[in-house]
Amino acid sequence: MDKAAIPQEDTTRRPWKLCTVTRVEEAKIMARMLPILLSTIIVNTCLAQLQTFSIEQGQMMDLHLGSYLFPSASVPVIPLVFMSLLIPIYEFLFIPFMRRFTGHPTGITHLQRVGVGLVLSAISMAVAGLVEVKGRNAFNDHQEKISLFWLSFQFGIFGIADMFTLVGLMEFFYSEAPLGMRLLSTSFSYLSLSFGYFLNSVLVKVINLVTERVAPSRQGWLFGTDFNKNNLDLFYWFLAKLSCINFGNYVYWAKLYKYKEEEVVVEVKKDESAAVDGGGQMPILRREKPVGAEEEKIRSS
């Protein structure tokens, strides 16, 4: 990318022919953030499962809580309840506590926060598989329905995961993006969300096509609408394993990523008190937090 800022003898000075150093550095920043963005697609695929299959699971459970009847479509409110309760705890207890050990202003870095969310999403899918096994065995063996609120375990864990991942991503993109792209960069979290939902549709079709060929019953894991007769639990565990693999991929890219605060900024500063070639300019290297797009250019004063 550095070659884009190096003028050639036959290079015409046009925006798409010769770029400023600032534009090249901004392109580098966006390229470094792209693997982080792609590594969060799987967690949003898991979210899509909770908002589709888990709600259909609830329709086959006992919807009563005492004399009250709860529709299964109301279950997704559980993650929101968990988030509303845990965000104040995170802000006022967790961050000050972790700050004592890490010295970081936010307790843990943005990428560490996203990593915690990825781990919790894998746990949520594993728990969803266990709940599905429990519900299916209860119905097939005893003709009983387990309570709808068994789903609160997987939804609650994923609510905590979403608190870490979504908010961590938004803070990461906002703080690391170039100044002129900060508002746009916050939408990258929702770009990951949309890719996750599309991947969900692809996974469901692919899993059904593959498993109906290898299963003895010649029916896919997600065949039909009666979850007591298919293998939804295997699909959840597949997502849990896929999430673990994705977490390993995320750790690899997160270790390679360098925060903007770690970059070295070169400032050309005129030293009026030193006689360097009759008052010339001398380069001074120092570490500083990056400045805006225009101020980031090499300047002289």
TrEMBL record:
GO molecular function terms noted in the UniProt entry: transmembrane transporter activity
Main location as per UniProt: membrane
Cell compartment(s), UniProt: Membrane
CC annotations in GO: membrane
Regions crossing the membrane: 33-53, 73-93, 114-131, 151-174, 181-199, 234-253
Keywords: Membrane, Transmembrane, Transmembrane helix
Highest taxon above the source species: Eukaryota
Membrane topology recorded in Swiss-Prot or TrEMBL: Multi-pass membrane protein
Family classification: Belongs to the major facilitator superfamily. Proton-dependent oligopeptide transporter (POT/PTR) (TC 2.A.17) family.
Name assigned to this protein: Peptide/nitrate transporter
Organism: Acorus calamus
